[in-house]
Structure formats: C-alpha cells, structure tokens
C-alpha cells in the first residue's frame, strides 16, 4: 500500500497552498460563469432580501436573505453580498476547525472538492448551512465526550438545529437524525440530549409553519404538497444519479445530453460509495463519526422520500450538500489512516478538474453585468420592480436572462401570462438579448 507521510512543516505549506487554491477557484467559479452562479431560487433569495421587511416568499426561510441584507448595509448589493457569504462561510469552517482541532485536514480536503467549491460560489443557502452543520457535529462531540452538561448540551444542539431550520427547511431531517441517534443510544448518558434536541427542533418547525408560513401563505400546503408527483422508478434512477454525482470527488455534474462520459462520472461516484461503505464497516467508528453518519444518512433518506409528496428538484450535489459533507469528513479521516499525506492529491486533482471544466465552459459575468446594467439604465428599470415573462417553468434558457438581471436588480418577478408582454416593464429574453450581447457558457 502506497502512503506518504510529510514533515509537519511541509504538510502545513501544502495545506496553505490548497486553501489559497480553493479561495481562487471559488472566485473564478462565479466570475467565469455567464450569470455569476445564480439560479431561479437565487432570484427569490435576492429579491426577498431587497424588499425585506415585506414578505413575498415563504418557500424558503428568512435566514439566508437576512444574512444577505446584513451585508448590504456595508455598501454591497445583494449579489456581491451573497458571494461574500459563501467566502466567509468557507473561512469560518477553516478557522473553527483549525482552532478546535476538529477534522481540520479532512475539512481542508472536503472543501476543496469541486462540488463544494461550486456550493461556496453559488448564490444559494447551502453555503450558509455548512458552517452550522460543522458546529452541530462539534457540539455533538462535546456531548458524546461528556465535556458539557446535559442541559447545556440540549440547549446548544437545539439552538443549532433551529438556526439550521431558519436557513433551510431540510434541516428538519437533521432534527430527525438527531432524534434517531438518541433513540439508538437511549440507555447511554447522552441519549436524551439528542432525543430532546431533535424533538425541540421538530417542534420549532411546527410552530414556524403555523405562525409564519401559514400567516403569509395560507395556501402553502395546497401549492406544494401533491401525492404521486413522480413514479418510484423515476425517483430511484434520480437517486442513484444524484448520489453518484454527489460522491464523485472530481465531477459533480453529468452531461444532460447523455453519452459515454456519464458512465465514467456515475461509475466513479458509485465506486466511491462502495469504498465508503467498506471502510465504515471494516473500521472502528467513534461516537462523533457515528452521529455524523447517522444524521447524514437520515437526511439523504428523508430527501428521497419527501419527493413523493413535496415538489423539489431531482436530488443532486447541492440539495445533498448538508448531508454529504459529514460523510466526506469521516471518509477522508479513514483514508488518511491508509494513505496519510497522499490523500491531499484527491483535493488537488478535484481542483484541477474543476478549473479545466470552468475554463473550457467559461463565460464572463463581469462583462455581462456591465451589459445588463447599461440595458436597465437605458430602459429606466435599474431601480424599478421588473416582471420577466416565461412561456413555462421549463423554459430553462429563458430564465438565465432573468437570473442575470437579478444580479443587478433583484426586484424581479416571473410571469407566465402572455398578455403581460404588452407592458413596457415586462421583459422577455428576446427583448433583452436583441439589444445587448451576452457571453454564454458553453457547457453550463
């Protein structure tokens, strides 16, 4: 078995170089994207931040938009605030792990994986979720090692779970994972800490649903709950594909057009999952590692089953990020025991793969932002509320123009009514792109 053990001095230099490279890739990932790494959900997040305290979106919690709002007080707009949050989230995880000596080497490598570089560069709430997930794992370790009392442990775990729910609703699955872990260890001294915190987290979501969601959107359940959205056969295929790309250390996006390359992408991800399963079965797991794996696996399982009655996108690296992060940490800790410093090669190879993909498919966000700013100023729409027309929710190419506009003026709403296009303030893709030149990404 090949392994390399570096002198601590040289290992620290290697870690520093890897961290600097990761920062550079996070920035390049959104600058070399035609729309700055945004999505339709990004539009809602930035708009929610811009118009707060008006509430027009209960499909997502207030946590992430309020963080964006906070940084706008320092002179940044909503787009740049969201990018700063991603960079600060990555920074916090590194500093906290280093100071507390908590999975530091593993976090350096995991955060450098191209999939997590994409998360930290994305205007999405997963980036903000990850620091609190790491805090949850750390507090769990303190409880398991009896370093904090039962009452303090329950309070700390509950607060973290509640904070996570206020950032992403799927943190409810972490509450359930904590509850299940506590029930599995019911007779141990720490069992009730996880049981009670899990129940409190679930209870908070129930109150949040009644007092906030139902107040601002009384039709929430009728709108988003629908039995039998997809057949099991389709969900299972999407699950396998989602897991395979999530746990591929190098490429987290399959070619939507299919082809031989996808066999390699899915195959490597499946091999990684098999390796994880083998190592977790054959090696001794600490209490902290068991908690991380339990909550993560419960989160993935719940993410699958909720699709039967709740409309969400097909599972992918982004939706599973809060649950895959802990699995990657435990996996790399086991790999370090076998290959030692050679394990860092995985992170460097992932960054190189990501750089190649980003460069080959590069757009130019700054140039596109300049073009869209000129367009909005000419149309007197820079500070106005905008409506953007789409033929349907499946109009994938058209929505990209709206996403780009939202990075300059986030007060943009989507309309599916053809008659709205008769109004001056209603934009369409053709109306925008017939007047400006946008540099498009080749493969993204």
Report the end-to-end length measured between terminal Cα atoms: 39 Å
Number of strands: 3
Q: Which percent bin holds the helix content? A: 55-70%
Number of helices: 19
Strand order of the largest sheet: 2-1-3
Strand content: under 5%
| Cα-atom radius of gyration | 22 Å
Largest sheet, in brief, is: 3 strands, parallel
Could you characterize what this model shows?
By secondary structure, this protein is an all-alpha fold. The protein folds into two domains: 8-31 and 62-360, no CATH class; 367-433, no CATH class. Helix content is 65%, strand content 2%. The protein contains 19 helices and three strands. The chain has helices spanning 8-31, 40-51, 63-72, 78-100, 104-112, 114-120, 126-144, 150-165, 172-184, 191-216, 220-224, 232-246, 260-282, 287-305, 321-339, 344-360, 365-378, 396-406, 429-433; strands at 386-389, 412-415, 426-427. A three-stranded parallel β-sheet has the order 2-1-3. The longest helix is centred in the middle third of the chain and has 26 residues, at 191-216. The radius of gyration is 22 Å and the shape is globular. The two termini are 39 Å apart. The relative contact order is 0.13.
Keywords:
444 residues, 2 domains, 3 strands
Topology:
Elements (H helix, E strand, L loop, with lengths): L7 H24 L8 H12 L11 H10 L5 H23 L3 H9 L1 H7 L5 H19 L5 H16 L6 H13 L6 H26 L3 H5 L7 H15 L13 H23 L4 H19 L15 H19 L4 H17 L4 H14 L7 E4 L6 H11 L5 E4 L10 E2 L1 H5 L11
Parallel strand pairs: 1-2, 1-3
Helix pairs in contact: 1-5, 1-16, 2-3, 2-18, 3-4, 4-5, 4-7, 5-15, 5-16, 7-8, 7-14, 7-15, 8-10, 9-10, 9-14, 12-13, 14-15
